[in-house]
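Supplementary notes for students who missed Thursday's class. We covered one full example, reproduced here. Read the sequence, then the structure, then the short commentary at the end.
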Amino acid sequence: MAVPSSWKARILWIALLAAAGYWISTAVWTVQQDEQGVSLRFGRVQQVAQPGMHFTLPWPFGKLIAVSTGEVRTLSVGLEWSEDARLRRQSSEQSQWLTGDTNIVELKVTVLYTVQDPVPYLFGWAGADDAERDQWVRRACESALTMTTPTMPIDELLANGKTVLRRKAQRDMQAYFDALGVGIRITGLNIVEVNPPIKVISAFNEVTNAKSDRERLITEARVYANRMLPEARSAANQKLQQALIYQTEAVNRARGETESFAKLQSELRKGPAMTLRRVWRDALTAILPQVRLQVVQAGTPERPTRVFLEE
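Structure (token representation):
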């Protein structure tokens, strides 16, 4: 049964309208909330589109490429992601770096970055795709670690040097990508593990424990010294004060005795007999209260009185 020509024309018009509608729909684009769009016209960048609905020239004259700028991309160095999204180790050779004291340290690092400017991110990587961009970031991290770890000894890296290493490596990576102008921002560099090589880790732990014991003993000695020094200083100050007091008393007593002796000498020259009697009386006054007095025989002008003193 032949199809009437009017139906053929109608079907042709419907097909043309559908094709035209589809072609026009290629000019309508939607940018999601965490994205930015790069609008192209004849292959040239026209503008950066914010989230919402946008219109360009239909394909192939216009195009809009959406780039996720809110997503934080995560890469691993010295680690790899398994199928269940858990980190696992790579081979030791891929995660070893030389330290400043010519030791070897194994580092496990994760790098976080976001797209800061979608235009250079799309066109500033020499045509690289997403996988190649990630590999580029990973190699930049390895290069930054290679430049930074030789400036630090292994003891510092294993103790509290991870923060310094992380900041230096992140700063060097950001400076490198800023110079390239590829539109990304390194938001974080996390050091997951810092260990000596597995083959020598037991011996290294023994050395570390010995150093810890040494530091502990030094700390205990300092605590003991800090506790004893104030006591020793206090005792020394007390002895010094006692010596100063004794010195003052002895000097004053000596001066008083000197003055008394000088006065007695002067009086002795003026009246020897009277002075001797007074000295005798003073001596008896000081001695008699402490002894028992026994008078054996009264004295006469020819024979003096005999007095016996007993304590």
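Commentary. Residues 81-92 have pLDDT under 50 and may be disordered. Residues 73-82+90-196 form a domain with the Tetrahydropterin Synthase; Chain A fold (CATH 3.30.479.30). If anything here is unclear, bring it to office hours.
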